[in-house]
Amino acid sequence: AELTVSAAASLTNAFRELAPLYEAKHPDTKVQLNFAGSGALLQQIAKGAPVDVFASADQVTMNQAQEQGLIKADQRSDFVSNSLVVIVPLQGSGAPASIQDLAKPAYERVAIGLPASVPVGRYTKSVLEKAGLWAAIEPKMIGAQNVRQALDYVARGEVDAGFVYATDAAIMPDKVKVAFTAPTQDPILYPIAPVASAANAGAAKSFVDFVHTDEAQAVMAKYGFGKP
Amino acid sequence: MADAWIPLALTLKVAGWATLLNLIFGVALGYLLARTRFPGRDLLDAILTLPMVMPPTVLGYYLLVLLGRNGAFGAWLQSTFGINLIFTWQGAVLAAAIVAFPLTFKSARAAFEVVEPQYEQAARVLRIGEMAIFFRVTLPLAWRGILAGLLLAFARAAGEFGATLMVAGSIPGKTQTLSIAVYEAVQAGQDDLANFLVLVTSLTCIVVLLVAGRLVPGRVPGQS
Amino acid sequence: MADAWIPLALTLKVAGWATLLNLIFGVALGYLLARTRFPGRDLLDAILTLPMVMPPTVLGYYLLVLLGRNGAFGAWLQSTFGINLIFTWQGAVLAAAIVAFPLTFKSARAAFEVVEPQYEQAARVLRIGEMAIFFRVTLPLAWRGILAGLLLAFARAAGEFGATLMVAGSIPGKTQTLSIAVYEAVQAGQDDLANFLVLVTSLTCIVVLLVAGRLVPGRVPGQS
Amino acid sequence: MIWDVALRKRFEGRKHSFELDLRFQSNARRLVLFGPSGAGKSMTLKMIAGLETPDGGHVRMNGVDMFDRDRRVDLSPQRRGLAYVFQDYALFPHLTVIQNIAFGLHLGLLNPGRSLRHEAVRRWIQAFHLESVANQYPEQLSGGQRQRTALARALVAEPRALLLDEPFAALDRPLRKRLRDELARLQAQLDIPMILISHDEEDVAVLADEMVRIEHGQAGQASLLPARARGGRSEPEAVQSTREFDWINSTL
Amino acid sequence: MIWDVALRKRFEGRKHSFELDLRFQSNARRLVLFGPSGAGKSMTLKMIAGLETPDGGHVRMNGVDMFDRDRRVDLSPQRRGLAYVFQDYALFPHLTVIQNIAFGLHLGLLNPGRSLRHEAVRRWIQAFHLESVANQYPEQLSGGQRQRTALARALVAEPRALLLDEPFAALDRPLRKRLRDELARLQAQLDIPMILISHDEEDVAVLADEMVRIEHGQAGQASLLPARARGGRSEPEAVQSTREFDWINSTL
Ligand SMILES: Nc1ncnc2c1ncn2[C@@H]1O[C@H](COP(=O)(O)OP(=O)(O)OP(=O)(O)O)[C@@H](O)[C@H]1O
Ligand SMILES: Nc1ncnc2c1ncn2[C@@H]1O[C@H](COP(=O)(O)OP(=O)(O)OP(=O)(O)O)[C@@H](O)[C@H]1O
Ligand code: MOO
Ligand SMILES: [Mg+2]
Ligand SMILES: [Mg+2]
């Protein structure tokens, strides 16, 4: 049977490695991975796309799915954690020591995921608002369509700093360096759940269980994700 | 990197079908608007151009609303024919065809408009029916302009990913076209893979465009 | 919702300039390829069509690589003229112009190809220079086809957001165009805002297309 | 009555307008429309063929209504079945000479092939000396070759009647004479009515039984030409006998 | 020597090819090219005007090289400054009659306006009876009106020489006579050489000093016509004096 998993774009590399492992254990199941921004994935499911498992990058999106009755709420769980970091180009001169430093004129441009639609932007905005810096930083903001675009901007030296997940920063250690971790109010936890209308409910549940196994967690850790 | 083959085949299939749909509907509507006058003709023309103006993702969203199991048209398709277009390559065809539609339509209309009506009249007095006149006189004389539009439509359909991603998803081997694969490679920071896939895309399209350009005779032999 | 005004104005500015660039380069290259023969002409034609085939985000990525502070061309621009295109509306213009370029180019080439060379010869024996012939004979006779292409290019430029977003960043009031705003609203699930912005976009484009269509006379008065 | 024609049509130009309002009847199998440039001859012929719609009036041939404003009859050009040779040829630019001539013989959705299949096409190509250009496109033809191709294209379909708008204008003298004779012979063979626009008095002399004079959009009644033997007459005689047309010289 | 022309050119058709290889010299201010359809007359005139490039040979006018393959001279049509009236008119479809005629008087990047500004344009419009259609587009003209517009367009620019490809073919007889006389008078006034292609013996009679016969792509030497008074001669006389052209009837 086929099992369709819709996963947030930031899970791309890790889930591509997970799928064969799961298939090895369940030879009669073929995993089909579908990656996009969490928001787009939610809309697809809401409009009736044949999805069995939904893994989102943030709680807000999963909450919306739950409110609309799209997922099996009783089988929802958080399976990895991530952290928000500030990165700067590797060749750049110095790095900010704290979030306050970003307000200094030396940092002309800061790449941030678009707060309205990108989860990482949402986290960033709340961190900056809590620090009372949003008004100062917003004019410097270069909006990114997703987290990887922000990463690209920093890697190419087009901006002076950027907010990304630790997992993204880990992809390009030769181009960016992590200045510091920005503490978020709530921990960044990735939720996963079987879709309510899943054609393959048994397999969906078994996949959700699978991502919690040590074997799967080891793979996730390789890509920089933490335990929930 | 041999993986490029499957998305490539899928891309050609999706773009090919989308171009075919464009050929039929774009030419028909282009002809209609070139040759008939009715109130609201210009407005209809502008509306038919709108898919070009919408960001593809947004278009994809509206398609999703329309075609989804819970959408007006999707529900009807499902209950009547048992067809579901979401997350299928046929859905990708539809999305790509709609995004590319204005290209064929506009080119076809412009091409039909410069065909001298006198040639059609000459065919009429030779007792050739209107349908045959269209296929034997009007269409061949407008063909160059239409072809230019079709090639653009093919290219656009092959490169489309915003609307396609929304409607068909990005399922490797099933709905993941080359351009979605490129997009994901760029997103994943796999620059080498991205460059390779871009090369494959470019070469394929160059070959298709070159071959298609060859298939069509010049306006008249002996002309440059 | 009055917020729509600023991105709307920006969209019109960006699409307008992009169309202007298209007019100049698309018409020039379309003419060149329609009227001269050289080895590799068909190849050049296919290459000039490639921006259509690339997913815009990918195109934007390559533009970033080229035009960025550390990019080959960007570094030269910066050191020579002190110009930086990344994250400016001019950068958005460039991205939109490149994405839309094949539309104008292909239409222009097809339109020039159907102009009877005899009209140009008639002008030549009347001692009119080649440049004046182009503007007084060739261009007016090809104008309908070119205009169809330009309108498509305008629509595409107005709707572009993948490449634009990449090159220009989405700086509210500075580089956030209407289609980026629509995209965000859709992504954020703000359906009402999205619908409203789509309405604004659609109406604006319909008005622009209608007005532009009016400005141009039909092929000849008395013709339908 | 072979031809019973009454036509009204108004063209609005930018500053001037042109108004056509004429009627004529004729029993002549060979009728010529004659008159100064811009008088409305081509327009009249087009309305007879059904290529322009008159504002009012009627077109009747052998008692059959082809157009009648009042009775709401308006046959399509196809159903009228009148062959038409255009003043500027209107050859299909994407077809060779052979294909152009064979065009009306194929009724399907495809154009005739490039090879010579039809006996009738072969015959007309020979009659009009088009062998050497049979595979060329209109653009590659001389003016005369174009017109001969147009003529052959109209004739090959064996139409119900033949409408010719200055068919010999671009031809040289010997060819004109030859084609004129060919046409006269054909006329006798096929036994179909013919209307011809011409400025050439010799055309009138050899090809016309009656003549309708059109001027400023108006027609005089068809005037019978002096009785004469059809076909071969010596040239000077023909020139002589057309002196009667010198009225034209005084009208302009 | 006014005209010294030697031309070689090969056209490759699909099955047949056409080869032109001719030379002629003439001191006639009024030269006519005469010959059967498809012989290469239009082609020759186009090569003289610089609109087609010969494979070899030369074109000299009044001793000035306009084209010489061996000396690598090839003046552009603009620099040759020879007015040309096309066999199928080639009127600009996007311009009115006034604009078409005024076309060559404006050298800038813009087309002339729709209003009558130039005295010369007004004069030619009157001379050719085009007043009533002055603001119409070519598509709205009768065949004769189109040709007269083309003629006026060529003449208004006061060219160095005048090349006319069957300029009177589509005209009716009185108009043809009138324009022919007008042209003859203009000829005398402007004092420029003229080459004319015609099948019409009366054209030859009234407008030609010498005649070059072209057949199968080859030309005989220019043959002087019998001495005659230029301009006004009565018609029958002209017709009479062209009997000498009856050779054509025997060649085909
Ligand atoms: N592009 C071409 N390819 C092949 N043959 C051509 C081409 N253009 C012209 N020809 C041939 O060249 C010959 C000469 O043509 P041209 O137009 O000079 O004839 P012409 O003497 O002016 O005849 P007419 O009196 O009928 O106008 C014709 O037989 C024509 O078929
Ligand atoms: N669309 C139009 N708008 C305005 N006037 C027009 C239009 N079409 C034709 N005319 C005018 O109608 C008149 C008749 O044209 P027609 O072609 O019938 O003349 P004709 O008798 O065939 O002349 P010729 O012998 O020169 O071919 C002309 O004066 C022409 O200017
Ligand atoms: O992985 Mo996301 O949904 O692009 O932040
Ligand atoms: Mg006429
Ligand atoms: Mg000729």
Automatic annotation (TrEMBL), chains B, C:
Function per UniProt: Part of the binding-protein-dependent transport system for molybdenum; probably responsible for the translocation of the substrate across the membrane.
Gene Ontology molecular function: any one: molybdate ion transmembrane transporter activity
UniProt xrefs under CDD domains: TM_PBP2
Top-level lineage group: Bacteria
Secretion signal, residue range per the UniProt entry: none
PROSITE patterns (alphabetical): ABC_TM1
UniProt name for this protein: Molybdenum transport system permease
Membrane-spanning segments: 14-34, 46-67, 87-105, 133-155, 193-216
Family under the similarity heading: Belongs to the binding-protein-dependent transport system permease family. CysTW subfamily.
Keywords in alphabetical order: Cell inner membrane, Cell membrane, Membrane, Molybdenum, Transmembrane, Transmembrane helix, Transport
Subcellular location: Cell inner membrane; Cell membrane
Membrane topology: Multi-pass membrane protein
Example of a GO cellular component annotation carried by this entry: plasma membrane
Automatic annotation (TrEMBL), chains D, E:
Coiled-coil region list: none
Pfam families recorded: ABC_tran
Keyword Ribosomal protein: no
Gene Ontology molecular functions: ATP binding; ATP hydrolysis activity
Residues making up the signal peptide according to the UniProt record: none
ABC transporter domain sequence ranges: 2-241
Highest taxon, organism lineage: Bacteria
Keywords: ATP-binding, Cell membrane, Membrane, Nucleotide-binding, Transport
InterPro entries for the chain: AAA+_ATPase (IPR003593), ABC_SmlMolc_Importer (IPR050093), ABC_transporter-like_ATP-bd (IPR003439), P-loop_NTPase (IPR027417)
Name under which the protein is recorded: Molybdate transport system ATP-binding protein
